[in-house]
Fold this protein.
Amino acid sequence: MLLFLTVDVVLLTLKQDQLYVGLVQRLNKDEPFYGVWTLPGGFVRPQEDNEARDTAIRVLRTKAGVESPYLEQLATFSGNARDPRGWSASITYYALVNEQISANSQERLRWEPVDEVLAAPMPFDHKELLMAAVARLRSKTSYSSLPLHLMPSSFTLSELRRVYEVVLGGKLEPRGFARRVMEQDFVEEVGIDKGEAHRPARLFRAKKSAPLYIEGTFCVL
Amino acid sequence: MLLFLTVDVVLLTLKQDQLYVGLVQRLNKDEPFYGVWTLPGGFVRPQEDNEARDTAIRVLRTKAGVESPYLEQLATFSGNARDPRGWSASITYYALVNEQISANSQERLRWEPVDEVLAAPMPFDHKELLMAAVARLRSKTSYSSLPLHLMPSSFTLSELRRVYEVVLGGKLEPRGFARRVMEQDFVEEVGIDKGEAHRPARLFRAKKSAPLYIEGTFCVL
DNA sequence: ACAATAGTGTCTATGAGACAATATGGT
DNA sequence: ACCATATTGTCTCATAGACACTATTGT
């Protein structure tokens, strides 16, 4: 084969105030890096997949047990140097899931802290893919509601702020954060979080109404 | 062939205060849309092209006569619906050139106003590609020095502002514009533009020092 | 002097950051 | 009452927009 086309997915979630990436084990003895834990990916199957996004969805479902997360195309990495088998192109997506979904993922999926994964060697050019995904998430986080996809079905403002802090890597002013969230109007109140030894917090959920991004297009809120 | 991999390039320039896109005529009788003017593109040649970016550069050089413009990967468009020949993926780039370069381009390249091209039918999903490129340019323009690549080797502040206005589609305050440009420090003075019936303007050029983007990564100035 | 465009001073409204003050439930 | 976290008030400072003013050249 002269050239092959794959899709890889950088699956990200948040656990214990840390960014985690989902890895699967390579189980085909005829392929490179047998047994190694890597980003889920697979060949495009023109018969089954109407487009590359469908490949990403199929890979997530079959290899990671994850359904319909937030999924966005990241970039395409290509060339003769990235895979020992020859010239290849990987249309790379990144996906965001919340902790519930990540907890329900298959056995075959293992979650590791992004920092640790980046510190160790990774096969192919997967380190580059992972860094690009994290950079994209970071950059969009600073001006959008993207991190909502990392949140459980309901959450307090403090929890949301904490997630922004983890992704952006720094403290945020509670006052300013609350202001922005309320102005931007991408959450709605759903109740009260009673039961702890302090003032109860209001619970919110993401508003359905606001589609955040158009595929491939950069779109400021 | 089950699946084929191409690279298309949306080549943009500015003429007479309007965005123009570069089109080439399809000259292969065995391919669809023979004779039609379309975005320059071509098959990836694994033997010659170390990566997809090299394909883009080769396409630009051989089909459009354009050398080393600003070139950035846009997105990959794929699927069985976009090309009558079957499942295809187009790794799409966009390129920015200034008026000098666009004037030196080959015979085979024809420049058309983006508005007019979008108003008429386009082959494949090229309308989508073109719209994505323009959207990307617009969006980056609002917070970066990207439009410098559309400028001649030296220019006045007014000319630069005019380009921003054309790309963004609206008037900009001369005062605020000058302030931002000077603060951001991405131009340097190279002389004076004498010879007209009014106060001469200072001439600037883009500073070499400032690489604007890392491929595939979003990077705020 | 006048026309025409370049470039600057500066007032004001808006928004972000800082931080203090108040609110509310459990113990 | 006290602790802990939630939520809000508000001061200050930086920045962006508006707009008028000054600068400089050719005619």
